[in-house]
Amino acid sequence: MDNNFFKNLEKKTGVNMNDVFELANSLQSANFKDEKTVRGVIRRVSQIANKPVSKETEDKIVKSIVTEGKQLDFGTISKMINKK
After folding, report:
1. Number of folded domains in the chain?
2. Which Pfam families would you find in this protein's record (predicted)?
3. Are 51 and 82 contacting, i.e. CB atoms less than 8 angstroms apart?
4. pTM of whole model > 0.85?
5. pLDDT at site 39
6. Are 18 and 24 in contact, with CB atoms under 8 Å apart?
7. Distance from C-alpha of 78 to C-alpha of 83, rounded to nearest angstrom
8. pLDDT tens-digit series, residues 7-57
9. CB contact at 8 A, 51 and 17
10. Among residues 11, 30, 34, 14, which one has the least CA distance to residue 22?
11. Residue of 17, 23, 53, 82 with fewest CB within 10 Å of its CB?
């Protein structure tokens, strides 16, 4: 993709695209049946998005992914984070 696209996206969102790419790369080999891994991903997304996640919300997300087997993607986490 065009580098200007990512620069504009960074300006509009305040999210560093390098952080997003690093996170995406780390997700490729992650074990989403492991609670510790899922919590780490949630915390990293929260940090990148500059949106704090309460312990209660984190627990709900972890439960839905580890126990209930829901898919982990940015959209799912974003929706849960923004439900506060």
Report:
1. 1
2. SpoVIF
3. yes
4. no
5. 94
6. no
7. 9
8. 887 787 788 888 888 888 888 888 888 999 999 988 988 888 888 999 999
9. no
10. 30
11. 82
Asked if residue 6 lies in contact with residue 22, where contact means CB atoms within 8 angstroms, the answer is no
Gap between the Cα atoms of 40 and 38, Å rounded:
5
CA–CA separation, 9 vs 51, rounded Å? Answer: 17
pLDDT digits (tens, 9 = 90+) for 57-73: 999 989 988 888 777 66
Measure the CA–CA gap between 72 and 60, rounded to whole angstroms: 13
Locate 26 and state its tokens: 């780390």
What is the number of alpha carbons within 13 Å of residue 34 lying toward its C-beta?
8
- pLDDT of 76 strictly over 90: no
Which pairs count as long-range contacts for 71-75, CB under 8 Å and 24+ apart, including other chains?
A: 72/27, 72/32, 72/38, 72/41, 74/45
